[in-house]
Amino acid sequence: MTLLELDGVTRDFDVSRRWLNRLLEGEPRRLLRAVDGVSFSLERGETLALVGESGSGKSTLARLIAGLYRPTQGRIAFHGKRVQMIFQDPYASLNPRWRVREIVAEPIRVLFRRSTAETCSKVGELLLQVGLSPEDGEKYPHQFSGGQRQRISIARALAGEPDLLICDEPTSALDVSVQAQILNLMSELQRRLSLTYLFISHNLAVVSQVADRVGVLYLGRLVELASASELFTRPRHPYTRMLMDAVPDIEISGRARTPVAGEVPNPLAPPSGCAFHPRCPYAYDRCVAERPPSLDRVACHAIEEGRIS
Amino acid sequence: MILEVTGLRVEFPSRHGNLVALDGVSFSIAPGEVLGVVGESGAGKSVTGLAVIGLLDPPGRIAGGEIRLEGRRIDDLGPEALRRLRGRRIGMVFQDPLTSLNPLYTIGRQLEETILAHLYVSRPESRKRAISLLGETGIPAPEERLHHFPHQFSGGMRQRVVIALALAAEPSLVIADEPTTALDVSIQAQIIALLRRIARTRGTAVMLITHDMGVIAETADRVAVMYAGRLVEIGAVREVLHSPRHPYTAGLMGSIPKIGASRKHKLVQIDGAMPRLGAIPAGCAFHPRCTSRLPRCSAERPELLDAGSTLAACWLHVPDAGRV
Amino acid sequence: MFLKRAWDHELAWHFRRSPVAIAAALLTLACVGAALLAPWIAPQDPFNVAVLDLNEAFLPPAWLPGGKAAFLLGSDNQGRDILSTILYGARISLGVGLASVALALVLGVSAGLAAGYLGGRTDALIMRIADVQLSFPAILIALLVDGVARVALPASSQDRIAIPVLVLSIGFAGWVQYARAVRGSTLVERQKEYVQAARVIGRSPLAIMAEHVLPNVLGPVLVIATIHIATAIITEATLSFLGVGVPATQPSLGTLIRVGNEFLYSGEWWITVFPGAALVVLVLSVNLVGDWLRDALNPRLR
Fold first, then answer.
1. B191-to-A124, B131, B156, B161 alpha-carbon distances in Å
2. Is the CB of B186 less than 8 angstroms away from the CB of A175?
3. pTM for the structure as a whole
4. What is B227-279 written as a DSSP string?
5. CB count, 10 Å around CB of B85?
6. What share of chain B in percent tops pLDDT 90?
7. Is residue B34 within 8 Å of residue B199, measured between CB atoms?
8. What's the pLDDT score for residue C302?
9. Which H or E element spans position B1?
10. Which residues of chain A have pLDDT under 50?
């Protein structure tokens, strides 16, 4: 059953100088296109991961779906009741002046209007569910470590009884051993509560641990979308291959790697045609001139023409 | 050996008592060798780097042990001698390339001044060296880039400039503290390759401090694993990563997600968290979280001992350790 | 339990280690206590015409020849005990100071929160008003508000509403600083993820501003406010000295100084010098407490 559908979603940000400066210096309005014509759908109970480097628009996309921004163009259709979100920075995502029980109770208080006793027992239950104890509710966020704070964030998100849980780099601020604790907790919760995750990350290895399907973003565009097993065994888009090559070889297996060239261009002035063409080893005239359509889950002229598989 | 550290102890006196940030840390780095120092936050890896170059923030101080650079003791030097040592004998690369460069000067000026301050060369010679350094660190068109300011470089290029600056006085040791953490994955690989090449071609000893096992696997020859201010395991990178002998290293390796691993497979999980400096457990600091602890572990602190392929501080590798 | 926690708090620890702070706090407490308890501790009720005796006018302080023990700091032209008028006057000065700072705080914090959180046109409008107001001296704004109020209100009620008008004018003159400080920290806080989390839950902007942002931006502003109490007391004294402040029937410290000033050159110096000294002590002690609080809450100065 489809829970979420995105159709040509685009979001621009106005990054022009202030009105007076523009007037005095004769500067035009400047728009940054953070998300550019992204379409995909999400099924109930699955985990879709979106990967990309900085400037890929993955966080903006997460916030568009969470309703924090409105799309400039395109349509987002959500067929569930509630979306909740887990954020990247465990030190900024909890109000430092609130007790943990107040933090976790906020969604219950606002969305369901339960009695105080009911709310209280529900909060205790949620804290237990994420591996904390109900007594922890009396403490303040600064009394917890990064990993524990991320557990509190998860408890708050679950308190809103979400159909869709958006996780924006939930473990990238954590140490690896703590990351493992949180990733294990998240997959356990998904199994127990049949949650649907939209998982945003820059780390392919983390994504391979959690995702059913993976979308690859580059400069606000979705360049490839495939099942995790397919994407990790046979990446198709040249950018996906490059990302795979950049993943450190922790096994020291000595696998052959093509060194990655270049850097992500300035999103204020994205390249013409296919945004990846300046870094792409297979690029030619058509890639400079024409933006490739999304065919067979991948947007690439070279693949379309069969020059690469 | 370029760098030899023995029994290093660093303390931070505070109003909560004397916090021991490093306790009995010993290691050495050979010319042309990259030693990876890895650990999670609070393990003491950055403090180790700062202690070596004498940049500990007061009230932090070296309370024991010794540090030798090319055979000479450097831990007891005065501030002036340490200042001359930094830059000349030891180069430093920090996490954030933007704050390591002065935004008001061209990178050419910053490079040339560093060269002139430390080496006895003429001004034209210093310019020639600056150009060749930029070329060596992989910056295209170095003659032109010399006249650019730091903000005109991208993140990856800026980190290359910082590395060039660290190499300017031809130091024998380069300390790189999380040099790739602020960079995108595709750029990380480029910087890793550069660091490795420098160690090989120049014979510079590199101390690479990072939390990222992937970076270690790609760059380091040997790796030192830290936990709660102590060295728990040290050895050749392949041995430590493939067949770790200390339970903490083993847990750490198991907790890293890997592409291609089955999703049904849960990640290895080390329960609990790293102890705070004020509350380090007695005996082996890792024993409360260790799944294979012996009675002796909570009573007596293990030393770094031959554990087969690596050196590990763990009673499991001491025959008859089960008996107290 | 609560006392124990307060004692262990970071601030309390700094407080215990700063003798200046302890002295200033004790002095402030003494001033505030004396002002509050004026009706009970003052030797005389200076506003009760029945007890005033013109034969006792212009008495010098008790220790000078001609002084009376009942008038420790001497008496004024109407035979009022100077010590008592100071105690009653400090009460009005302190009251006006606190009330006007409270008003400025409420105005400024609301404006700053709205400007910082809502942004866009609201922000531009509020901050332009603030800019314009900042280009006039505060005392001029206060005089302007006071003048407008006097023209607009009937003469009969002017004495009765003099003090509220004064509070209004000083408070209105001071809101800009709070608004700027709060706007700045609100801009920082609204970017933080806990605010976004509240938006995802569906909280209204008003609820987010009041429940999430406000507690996190209030700290620095309260420090400014402590220091401003002293400034407000001085502004009140200045206005009263200029004759547009509180009426002579309910004299504040500033009024007392103005009234006493007329007798300074005829030799009755005590009528103006003692209220002046009281004002200095009051302002200084409040200022010292404020300074200490600012330093203690500023991690960079520790």
1. 47, 19, 7, 11
2. no
3. 0.84
4. ETTEEEEEEEHHHHHHS--SHHHHHHHHTS--TTS-TTSPPP---S-PPPGGG
5. 18
6. 40
7. yes
8. 40
9. none
10. none
- How confident is the model at residue C301, as a pLDDT? 45
Q: Which helix (H) or strand (E) holds A243?
A: helix A238-246
How much is the pLDDT for C300? 46
- Which domain CATH number covers A27? 3.40.50.300
Please give the residue of chain A at the shortest CA–CA distance from B266. Answer: A184
pLDDT band at B262 (very low <50, low <70, confident <90, very high): low
Q: What is the CA radius of gyration of chain A?
A: 21
Element (H, E) at A272: none
A114 part of a folded domain: no
Provide the token pair at A23: 């007037």
**pLDDT, mean over chain C:** 82
Higher model confidence: residue A152 or residue B298? A152
Length of chain B measured in residues = 324
How many domains does chain A fold into?
1
A7-11, B126-130, B253-257, C255-259: lowest mean pLDDT where? C255-259
DSSP string, chain C: -HHHHHHHSHHHHHHHT-HHHHHHHHHHHHHHHHHHTHHHH-SS-TT-GGG--GGGTTPPPTTSTT--TT-TT-B-TTS-BHHHHHHHHHHHHHHHHHHHHHHHHHHHHHHHHHHHHH-HHHHHHHHHHHHHHHTS-HHHHHHHHHHHHHHHS-GGGTTTTHHHHHHHHHHHHHHHHHHHHHHHHHHHHHHSHHHHHHHHHT--HHHIIIIIIHHHHHHHHHHHHHHHHHHHHHHHHHHHHHTSSS-TTS--HHHHHHHHHTTTTTT-THHHHHHHHHHHHHHHHHHHHHHHHHHHH-GGG-
Write down which chains contact chain B via at least 3 CB pairs under 8 A: A
* Confidence grade of residue C10 (pLDDT, cut at 50, 70, 90): low
DSSP designation for B41: T
Q: Do B186 and A251 touch (CB under 8 A)?
A: no
State which residues form the domain around A273: 2-80+163-304
Q: Would you give the DSSP letter of residue B174?
A: E
pLDDT digits (tens, 9 = 90+) for C57-114: 777 777 777 777 777 787 777 778 888 888 888 888 888 889 999 999 999 999 999 9
CA distance B52 to chain A (A): 24
Residue type at B251 in one-letter notation:
G
Q: What is the CA radius of gyration of chain B?
A: 21
A/C interface, count of CB pairs below 8 Å: 48
Instruction: List the single residue in A with minimal CA-CA distance to C218.
Output: A97
CB pairs under 8 A between A and B: 128
- Do the domain assignments include residue A257? yes
A282 belongs to a structural domain:
yes
* Rounded-to-integer distance, Cα C70 and Cα C81, Å: 8
Go through the domains of chain C in sequence order and give each one's CATH number. Answer: 2-301 (1.10.3720.10)
Subunit contact B211:A187, Cβ cutoff 8 A: no
Order of all β-strands in the sheet with B230-236: B90-93, B173-177, B205-210, B34-38, B222-227, B230-236, B311-312, B305-306
DSSP letters, A123-187, are: HHHHHHHTT--GGGGGS-GGGS-HHHHHHHHHHHHHHT--SEEEEESTTTTS-HHHHHHHHHHHH
Asked if A38 contacts A221 with a C-beta cutoff of 8 angstroms, the reply is yes
| Chain-chain contact of A176 with B40 (C-beta, under 8 angstroms) | yes
Of B193, B218, B258, the CB nearest to A205: B258
What is this model's ipTM? 0.85
> What pLDDT score was predicted for residue A54?
82
d(CA A53, CA A86): 19
A197, part of any domain: yes
What is the overall mean pLDDT for chain B? Answer: 88
Distances (CA, A) of C220 to A1, C178, C190, C215: 51, 10, 17, 11
Would you say residue C1 has pLDDT above 60? Answer: no
